[in-house]
Amino acid sequence: MKNSLVLVSAGIVLAGSLRGAEISGQVVVTGTPPAPKEITAASADVNCGKLRTEPALTRTYVVSKDGGLANVVVYLKSGLSGKTFPAPQDPILIDQKGCMYEPYVSAAMVGQKINIRNSDPVMHNVNAGTPKNNKGFNFSQVTAGQVNPRVFDNPELGIKLICNVHSWMVAYVSVLDNPFFAVTDKDGKFTIKGDLPDGKYTFEAFHQKAGATTQEIEVKGGQATGKFTLEVKQ
Amino acid sequence: MSFVVQSAQKTPSGEVDPYQQTLVAVSVFTTLATLALVSVGGLVTSKGVGMSVPDWPTSYGYNMFLFPPSLWKGGVFDEHVHRLLASFVGLMTFGLASLLQWKSRERLMRRLGWLAFGLVVFQGLLGGLRVVLDRQALLGTTLGTVFGLAHACIGQSFFVLLASITLRLSRPWRGFSKGPSLVGFQWLRWAFPLATALIFLQLVLGASMRHQHAGLAIYDFPMAYGRWWPATDSESLFRYNQLRPDESTVTAAQIYLQMFHRIGAMATLIMVAICGYSGWRAFRDISFLRRACLLWIFVLAIQAALGIATVLYNKPADVATAHVAVGAVSLACGTILSLCAWRLVATSQVRVHQPVRGWPAPRTV
Q1: Mutate to test the interface with B, among A63, A165, A170, A209 (most CBs of B within 10 A)
Q2: CB contact under 8 A, A123 and B71
Q3: What backbone phi and psi angles, to 5 degrees, belong to B236?
């Protein structure tokens, strides 16, 4: 009887700790990263120019007024050794609109379906080039609305997608081995939600240009905050 | 090239041989078409659109010649035009080789014709493999990059081969048999090929940069990342990549590649200036070659300016493509002058009395 009570109590505690943790925070950048520039080729292109209502800008550094850096992948790097997670059933979407990839940076789990869509009435090709840990691909999307699902089988940060038809089109997708990740918004803010038990974990913030920085974050009562700083050196 | 067109042989009765005239015309036309092909190839690489048609020999599953024009858009247009032009040049080269086989009395010319045809077929195959095997890894790079580089170099060599065939069919070439010698400038027969080899080396370095899309591995000039010789330690590389305005990432090897290309450009420019000026003095009695020498210097000066503009203006595709095309012309100029110098020496029966220090010992020819 006593053993049963202990087991029940332990189960309740475990269930409580697994009940949806939320880690939020911001990634900021210091220094003076290059400002976004207009991609003149996009406007000048006979077909793509018609699809754009405003100029296309480079997105290597999108920085808010308070230094928040967009398009940073924040993910749980270590602290869950030995645990495996099933890939989410819901696919993520990488779209091509106005001859730009949207979103510019995305993240998926290993095995998670990535739907790649062409919303333009213009042909694009999606070229994943040569990923280091995954199999690349290169296929064309001739008609508007065409969707091609793809899956990456191994963890890898910043797999580059390009379109050879329109050489300015670039996107990055990071593939992770756990579901605890997010991509920062235009203010550099992120929120990671999931069944993460209380404890100490190492998170990393990875930006394609600014680099990566790690931080130990303690989740208590399912809550934690983190602030990452990336430096652009002159 | 106007000298070539007037070079039709005369028959024993004194009439212009129409077949010879056709041969010269086909040769000139194929050479010019090849220059256009090399230029479009340069445009494809400069724009990074080589993989916009991801299959070969079909184009998006279509027979290449039936590919619907409605799909010729953006990079697809450039790549598809390159493929069609390549097919056309292949056909023209077959015609030239057949005409040479039929009309030429020189075994060498007949062989050169078929060599050119073999080369263009091999070149087409390389271009196709560059597409099909694009992502296959090889020694830290990809087969696409390796085949692309080979495709670029063989393309230039093929153009030079056709220019040489055209030269050998020309009237000036035949006139050399009773022309003047290179008295006092015999060293040019070595200097011209050396300068031409330097140009070819520059083209190889340039092609390596283009095919890695590392033409802007250094984006300032004349300095390199603010220094005469850029630092390439890991911290500096990280900083360079952080501040690069585009999506590319450079490596130390790519930076070295561009530094060698810059140094090679200076060496080539000096070498061509010396050779061109000396040739201008040496070919006193041959106005065609005097003009070719001056043209060579002029072309190299343009080439250097285009190289600088490529860096300073963020590698515009048209400027980078012009850099490829003018590079091909400078290589052809060097080859033509080298062949002419050797032809003159071979036909002059002159003993050289004034050796030039540092050059191979002169000999009676």
Answers
A1: A165
A2: yes
A3: -65, -40
